[in-house]
Amino acid sequence: MDAATSAHVLFRAVSHTYAARAGHGAVRALGPVDFELRRGEFLGVVGPSGCGKTTLLEALAGLVVPSEGSIEIDGRRIAGETPPSIGVVFQEDASFPWLTVVDNVAFGLRRSGLPAGEIAARVDHAVELMGLSEFRAAYPSQLSGGMRQRVCIARTLVTRPGLILLDEPFGALDQQTRLLMGEELLKLWRDTGATVMLITHSLDEAALLADRVAVMSSRPGRFIEIIETGWPRDRDSTLASKPEFGALTGRLWTLLREESRKAMALK
Ligand SMILES: Nc1ncnc2c1ncn2[C@@H]1O[C@H](COP(=O)(O)OP(=O)(O)O)[C@@H](O)[C@H]1O
Ligand SMILES: [Mg+2]
Question: Do 79 and 203 have their domain in common?
Answer without folding.
Answer: yes
